[in-house]
């Protein structure tokens, strides 16, 4: 898989937001918390638990897998582990609607975000021939099914403020040869149509995925397929989705690619890149690598005019696939989540 396995469907969030102050052949062969990571006057204990630290404009799901794990561990008396896991549960992470009908998951998320006056972050991940038959194989059965799916996706957002990460890996798999040549035209056409359909929603921003610098090391190779996929009508590109490249490496790559695309903006997935990538070029370095850590918390205050946001697009704690002892792709893995949180530079 491209370094970013799909996550479980969004858990229904009809309850009001609890205010607390809310992968891929990506290695083809593949930080410290940022702004808003604390407030003056917080107790040391509160900072350790991660309480009150989210000052981003993005929605935190109060019934996420991480949040429910915290509740379970609190009930079991695992207070220390629960406190550490709050570094995930009290941060906004993207939703990955799954199945043939994305509407229920999205509507629940939009409802929860509206109650909290926040922006929902979503991932559209259902392109036909997804992930080239690897850990996250699947996707819509054909082009018409995908058009219906993306239409339902957009309709469910309505007029709510939203960020959509469009089809992780889809363009990079064209470049790396994983997607057969006979499927290229259909794929870029579907992506272009998806950009246009999503942009009909008045407050939706769309970022077309462009892989990561350890996967496609020459950004020039991405330019033509991104243009055919409608990047010039999108709000920009997403980088490092479900991967582990450092913020600095991704920003450098993003700036180079941006220059080739006439100044395109970008967002970075910083969910698990706090310790950078697994060293040594080991096989499947993108898939549940050991020793990784949470990265820069979600924020739209980046200090870089091209970088629109740090986002946690991959849901920290969801497995990349059945590698290194992990469960199926997209399955919540509490032990892995706890390790990411423990090693976070808070």
State the main characteristics.
6 strands; 346 residues; single chain; alpha/beta; six-stranded parallel β-sheet; 10 helices
Overview of the molecule:
- By secondary structure, the chain is an alpha/beta fold.
- Helices cover 32% and strands 8% of the residues.
- The chain has 10 helices and 6 strands.
- The protein has helices at residues 44-49, 65-75, 79-89, 103-116, 143-157, 170-175, 184-199, 220-228, 247-260, 334-342, and strands at 120-124, 162-166, 204-209, 236-239, 266-269, 307-311.
- α2 packs antiparallel against α3, α3 (79-89) packs across α10 and α4 packs parallel to α5.
- It is globular and about 55 Å long.
- Mean pLDDT is 87; it is low at 1-52.
Helix-strand category = alpha/beta
Helix amount, in percent? 25-40%
How do the strands line up in the largest sheet? 1-2-3-4-5-6
Succession of helices and strands: HHHHEHEHHEHEHEEH
Q: What's the count of strands?
A: 6
Number of helices: 10
Uncertain stretches of 5 or more adjacent residues: 1-52
Based on CA atoms alone, the radius of gyration comes out at 18 Å
What amount of the residues lies in strands? 5-15%
Distance between the termini: 30 Å
Let me know the average pLDDT. Answer: 87
Major sheet, described briefly?
6 strands, parallel
Shape: globular
């Amino acid at each position: 898989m491209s370094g970013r396995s799909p996550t479980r469907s969004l858990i229904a969030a009809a309850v009001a937001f609890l205010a607390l102050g809310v992968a891929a052949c990506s290695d083809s062969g593949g930080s410290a918390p940022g702004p808003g990571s604390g407030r003056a006057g917080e107790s040391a204990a509160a900072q350790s638990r991660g309480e009150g630290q989210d000052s981003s404009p993005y929605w935190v799901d109060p019934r996420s897998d991480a949040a429910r794990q915290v509740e379970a561990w609190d009930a079991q008396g695992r207070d220390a582990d629960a406190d550490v896991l709050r570094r995930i549960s009290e941060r906004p992470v993207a939703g990955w609607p799954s199945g043939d009908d994305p509407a229920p998951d999205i509507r629940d998320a939009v409802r929860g975000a509206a109650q909290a006056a926040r922006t929902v972050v979503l991932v559209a991940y259902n392109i036909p021939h997804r992930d080239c038959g690897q850990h996250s194989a699947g996707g819509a059965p054909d082009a018409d099914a995908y058009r219906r799916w993306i239409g339902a996706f957009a309709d469910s957002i309505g007029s709510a403020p939203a960020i959509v990460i469009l089809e992780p890996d889809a363009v990079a798999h064209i470049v790396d040869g994983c997607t057969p040549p006979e499927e290229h035209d259909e794929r870029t056409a579907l992506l272009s149509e998806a950009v246009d359909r999503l942009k009909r929603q008045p407050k939706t921003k769309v970022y077309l995925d462009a892989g990561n610098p350890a996967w496609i090391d020459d950004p020039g190779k991405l330019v033509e397929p991104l243009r055919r996929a409608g990047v010039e009508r999108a709000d920009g590109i997403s980088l490092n989705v479900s991967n582990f490249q450092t913020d600095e490496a991704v920003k450098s790559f993003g700036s180079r690619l941006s220059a080739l695309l006439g100044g395109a903006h970008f967002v970075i997935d910083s969910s698990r890149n706090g310790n950078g990538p697994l060293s040594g070029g080991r096989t499947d370095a993108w898939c549940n690598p050991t020793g990784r850590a949470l990265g820069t918390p979600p924020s739209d205050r980046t200090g870089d005019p091209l970088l629109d946001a740090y986002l946690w697009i991959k849901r920290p704690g969801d497995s990349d696939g059945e590698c290194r002892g992990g469960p199926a792709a997209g399955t919540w893995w509490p032990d892995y989540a706890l390790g990411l949180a423990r090693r976070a530079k808070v």
